Amino acid sequence: MNRRWLVNRTNPDYIKYLSKAISVSPAFAQVLVSRGIKTPQAINSFLNPHISGISDPFEIDGVKTAVERIKHAADTNETVLIHGDYDADGLTATAIMVHALRASGIDVHYFIPDRIAHGYGFNPAAVKIAKKLGATLIITVDCGITSFDAAFSAKKEGIDVIITDHHEPVVRAEEQQSSRAEGHCATAPLRYLVPEAIAVVNPKLQTHNSKLSTLSGAGLAFKIAQALSMVHGSRFTVHDLLDLVAIGTMADVVPLTGENRILVKEGMKLIHEGRRQGIRTLKSAAGIDKRELRAGLLSFTLIPRINAAGRISDASDVVRLLLSETEGEAEDLSSWLNRLNAERQKIEESVYQKAREALSVMHDERAIVVSGKGWHQGVVGIVASRIAEEFYRPAFVLSIKDGIAKGSGRSIPSFDLCGGLAGCEELLLSFGGHRQAAGVRLKAENIPLFEKAIQRIVETALSKEDLVPSLEIDADVALSEVNHSLIREIAMLEPVGCSNKEPFLAARKLEVVNPRIVGSNHLKMKLKHGAYSMDAIGFDMGTTEVSGAVDAVFTPVLNEYNGSSYLQLSLKALRPSR
């Protein structure tokens, strides 16, 4: 797929000033400016995040009330049920909350819904379980903000509810209509409908303090734990929970800036040290216990294994793994997750192939809706993500069973998926999620109407140019600027991920030397400019034509092999030089 190359450029004199002021290379100074970090003070704060920089949890509305209610539960020996979610963010959030409440002396249990049997969200089945346990308080993590029925059911049973969630709340109907009428320029704060509860903790409800609005479910659970530790003193060390926060935050693909950056950076230290028994054995099972662990590696190793249980099995045992202090138990559960992940990969590939067959003829659709009977609900989100990336369109993949279609949507950066779904909610039985990912449920007979409606909404919102992917380049560099010193500077950007991606550099008019295909369709060569040449590899770029002078987009890396290391360019794109 062709991509637009967008190169960030800054006044060269300012780059020279910044380079000298913070003692970094001009290339790295440009990388920092390209991501909006433009002053020596801001750069120092970004490159040196410290746990002391995290915010006061009581800045979040509802935390004070929630903690007071939890403390009352501890003082009066109440039983509490934690209602989690089946994905990696929800599971780590559950483990965080269980740990914090146990350390506070509370009799705590947890409930993880089954993806197929219960679906997403705070489920009324949990109210029955709470009643059976004799629980007088339910605390949701990573869910609940749209669960009106379950909250009402709990109230009827005399069970208090605290909701902690980071998903989009329901906007009042009259607010939606007003917002649509005024377009995207409306600046008045929206009013939301929230379930009736003792406390509702969701930073997205706040207009006066938005800096914590990007917390993951695990991050929000950590803020509750942080507040509890401040109230209960030294009953537990909240810092010990940061490894779980790091996994949940990376899994939920929230921006790795501000507080999230601090939480993940500190948590990665604990993961690297192997402080937690369950994570240590899972690293070993994934074969990464001997590798240098960076945040991005989690997305390809530990997180898919944690998610596998919720996709095709019962995820409750993942919480047991994350809280386990027994080596044998942790090893058994880690091996189980390894096997589940392999099975999940096979199921995913099967559904993907069926979805692609259904898309064999693509016209000028602005959005993709594809459905099939009996497709495994646990993998439709991954398949939707793959299709959205492949076609660069918002994509929905739906599984039909008993006349009901359930599925997931994934978007592209320029389209707000949840906002779009709100525009056709009369066709949906339910929906919820984020700007870039959402779950939907509708009658199968309404799929054609839904497809037309979402097509119309996307067509109104996006231009044809919005549907052409762009390659954002942080800096134009000479090949001679790519050295070990630049590699060390780039490492200071860790953790990289959403809103803090690995840097893309561009070099122009390079000579291609000895291009060849290696492995399974990887393009390997040397790129040369004057006296400088460097090894380069483009994964899955074997079909790329290379002849004459080329421009290259790449990330410089240190490739380690058989005990030695050398500089290499990890190619992202090539094109003929103009």
Describe the structure.
With 578 residues, the protein is α/β, with parallel strands linked by helices. It has 3 domains: 126 residues, OB fold (Dihydrolipoamide Acetyltransferase, E2P), CATH 2.40.50.460; 186 residues, inorganic pyrophosphatase (n-terminal core); 109 residues, Diaminopimelate Epimerase, Chain A, domain 1, CATH 3.10.310.30. 40% of the residues lie in helices and 21% in strands. The protein contains 20 helices and 20 strands. The strands form 5 sheets. It has a 5-stranded parallel sheet, sandwiched between helices. The protein has a 5-stranded mixed sheet with strand order 9-10-11-13-12, with helices on both faces. A 5-stranded mixed beta barrel has the order 16-17-18-20-19. Helix 7 links the parallel strand 4 and strand 5. It is globular and about 75 Å long. The two termini are 19 Å apart. About 2% of the residues have low confidence.
Radius of gyration: 25 Å
Number of strands: 20
Oligomer: single chain
Question: Roughly how much helix do the residues carry, as a percent range?
Answer: 40-55%
CATH topology of the largest domain: inorganic pyrophosphatase (n-terminal core)
Number of helices: 20
Structural category: alpha/beta
Give a brief outline of the structure.
With 578 residues, the protein is an alpha/beta fold.
Annotate the secondary structure layout.
Layout: E1 4-7, H1 12-22, H2 26-34, H3 40-47, H4 63-75, E2 79-83, H5 88-103, E3 107-111, H6 124-133, E4 137-141, H7 148-156, E5 160-164, E6 170-171, H8 173-182, E7 192-193, E8 199-201, H9 217-232, H10 242-251, H11 258-273, H12 277-286, H13 295-298, H14 302-312, H15 316-323, H16 327-358, E9 368-373, H17 380-391, E10 395-401, E11 404-410, H18 417-422, E12 430-433, E13 437-443, H19 447-461, E14 470-473, E15 475-476, H20 484-491, E16 505-518, E17 522-529, E18 532-538, E19 549-561, E20 564-576
Parallel strand pairs: 1-14, 2-3, 2-4, 4-5, 5-8, 9-10, 15-16, 18-20
Antiparallel strand pairs: 6-7, 10-11, 11-13, 12-13, 16-17, 16-19, 17-18, 19-20
